[in-house]
Structure formats: structure tokens, C-alpha cells
Amino acid sequence: MRVEEFMSAGAARFEAKAALVVGDTRLSFGELDALANQCGRALRRIGVRRGDRVVAFCDNSVEAVVGIFGALKAGAVFSPVNPTTKPDKLAFILNNCRASAIITQQKQLGTVGEAAAHAPTLRGILVAGDDAAVAKSVCGGVPMFPALAAEEQTAPDDPGIDIDLAMVIYTSGSTGFPKGVMMTHQNIVHAATSITTYLENTPDDIVLSVVPLSFDYGLYQVLMSVKIGMTLVLEKSFAFPQAVLNRLAAVKATGFPLVPTIAALILQNQTIKPGMFPHLRYITNTAAALPPAHILRLAEMFPTTRIYSMYGVTECKRCTYLPPEQLRQRTASVGKAIPNSEAWIVDDKGGPVAPGVVGELVIRGGHVMKGYWENPEATDKALRPGGLPWEKVLYTGDLFRMDDEGYLYFVARKDDIIKTRGEKVSPKEVENVIYQIPGVAEAAVIGVPDAILGMAIKAVVVLVEGAELGEREIIRHCAANLEDFMVPKSVEFRRELPKTGSGKIRRSEVQAEATGTPVVPGS
In sequence order, which residues have a C-beta less than 8 Å from that of residue 393 and are 6 or more positions away? Predict the structure, then answer.
């Protein structure tokens, strides 16, 4: 099965049922499928062919959902990108995957225009917005919905088969350059089927999501909702928590995906009383583990709601989940492998470890990526031979331990990637921007525990002798050159940073000094 068949099957089964609600816009499965078909045809018209890459550069919106499924209907590969991404990074992504088209919004035109000027493979840009003249003048864009209205509502011919790539989603790399995770239709169908199985989703579910579609956790809310026939209510962000909670009650949502940042804000809300959300059947959490105290407080605030603590990586979407009935007994655990997959822990030589011993988590299943886009070195590091001659299994790069009953506990990340607000941040990428500031001699970017963000970005900086720089100047420079979630929350100034014998900054030692924790071996 191909992913766009979720949409056509949903239209056949639930034609008039609400599929997507964004603000005051409400689209049925039949309407959403027709728009996706028209989008696929519009993309074909501007030159997109089977296997081409189409970047979706949008916030949580109708155009993002239509664009993703439209790309698949055209037989293309979609790539969702955070709409706060700066022009240089967007240009890198466009060139790295050799994108043929971008689907975007009028408010992102400045960034798109600057990046597109350096992306020679682009054949077209579809722009959602009211001012067609602006779209054309800024980057030669085509107004999206008028273009769709001119097309037939039937699906384009010959989109491909299920072993084709469906998505390339970029994740931060330790070198500072994002890596494109390649997922086939089979990968996505496997992951979506497994997750909706343990969540026990049905067409009666109404899911409210504020998680960005550029983050695979948010993206899968769309894919799973369409697959099952659920109604998805998309909110652009959790910037106004009370408004979102009011919406949660008004739409009688049955599912609410969280990341630790959102959970922390909810726990600070004094207006929530047990029993206020009787329709809310489940809450999920991923991106980073919730502190056990937060899990227990959520359970008290939502006593009739099943709370799922989960762990995943972009390279296979979801790895583990903790059955809600185990929540109070194993609050710190992220559970066991998701259905139709396997998870185990290995030592540095790849051998299994005993319960209680810390090692690297390995995942086996049909949801494991095919590799990193045109990056064989990184692919070979992550995907290694499994127990059968023909298979590769995923080495997650994360350190775990397992208890006597097989439940898994996250210990630390083996690499330096920081998870904040549900997003991955490469310290190297932030450091590169800080080094652009005159007067900065050395910089190390680390993550420190934060009650709201989960981990907050902190920059530790050594200045050139005689330089006069303050925290405000460094943060302002980062804000002008990085996505908002990558901007340091604080800056510490030091006379020197710890280094190896070869002069390399020991970031793990800086991390340990800042947090008062021992250095994790292999970190």
C-alpha cells in the first residue's frame, strides 16, 4: 500500500466526514482527497515527475496537508521543513535533495525567494496566499489554490509502488549539516499501523495536534488520522495554552499528542481540574522523556485519560511505548518495542547486554529507514547487519538499560544532539553561527535541564582578549541566523574551555560541568 492510498480509501469510506479542521476551515475526506488530486496534477504540470522531491515549507495548515498528499499523488517524495528555517539552511536542503518544487505560504516568501535563487533544480513554487502578484514578483511563484482549481479532481496516473521513497525528512547531524532520512511507503505504513494499533485508534477519534508537521511526530498525526478515518484538528502552536485547552474541550478531542515543553506548560495551568476533559481518551508524549514527576501529575490532572510515554528517533519514527497500565509501576520507563518490531541493547562490540547494563539501543522492523540521502558513511554507521543475511538493523546512538522484565529506560544520547521543544539541535550548527560574531574565540553549545523546554540551549563562550560582548548581543545574533528553537536561552562566559590533547573542545566535559553530572562514556 502507498501512503496516498490512505486518502483515497478514506474518501471512499468517509466521503462527507470531517477529515481536517484548521481554524474555521473544515474539510471532509472527499474534499481533502479532491484537493490532493488537484495538487498532484498541478505539480505534474510544473514539471514534477515520479521520484522528484517536493519540499513542504509551511506551518500547520490546510496547504501543508494538501501539499504533502499532492506530492505523493504525483509520485513524488515529500520533504517537510520547519517554516522558521533560515535561507542558507533551506538552500542547503533544496540543493542536497535536488528539490523540484516547493509548496509554501506567502509569509515565507522572503526566505523562499532567497533560498530559491541558489537552488537550480527548482521547477516551480506553489504559494498559498491572497496576493498572487506578490507571489509572482518575489520568487516567480504560482498561486497555489487558483492553480489547483484549474485541475481535474481525479488522481494523476502512475504514481509508483510501495517500495518507492515517500519522504525525505531532515534531522540534525553532529557535523552541523542536516541529514535526509529516507522513508519508503512501506516504512510509513508499517509505523502508522503499529502506532495506531497500540493507541487503539478508531474512526471515532478526534485528534487535536499543535506539534509542527515538520517534526515527524506532528506529521504522523496527519498520516495516522487519514489512515484510520479520524478527524484531525490542527493548531498552529501552543503559544496560547488556554486557547488550545479551550479548543480541546470544544471539539471534544479524544487524542492529544504532547512534547515535554507542552506538558510542562499544562502542569503550570491552575485552571485545569480533574474531569474537565471527559472525552479525552489518550495523551501521548515523545521527543524526550517526561520527568517521572510530570507523568504522575498529568495522571492526576487527567484521571480518566490513558497516558502513553513513548520514545522514538526520526530514523524509524517510533521505537517503544509504555502501556498506560504500567505507568505508575514504571514511571521512568519508555516501555517495550512497538507492535511488529523488536528492540534490544548491545555493548560496544554489538553483543547483547544483561539487564541493568547500559548499552546502545538497536531497533529491528519494517519502519527502519532505508538510509540517509546520499550519505553512505552516516548510513553505514546507523544501519548495520542484523541477524539475518539480508537485513539491516538500526543502531539508534542512544544509551539505554533494561530491567529484568524487559522494560527499557533511556539513559543518555551517545552523540551531542540536543532535544529541545521536541526538536533536534546540532550544537555544531549553533556554534558555527556564534563563531561568526567578531570577538568570539571559542564556543561550546550544550543542553541543560529546563522545566519548560526539557533541555534548554546554553552557549559557553570564550572571548578574544579585549573584546566586549554580552549575552544579549550573542542571543540577538543567533536569533537573526537560526530557527527559533535553536537560539540559546543563556550564555556563560569563561576564560577557557577544556580540550583534548589535539586541541578539540571537550563538549561533554563542558556539559558535565554545567549540569553537575558525570561524563557518560561514549558521549
Answer: 362, 363, 364, 368, 383, 384, 385, 386, 387
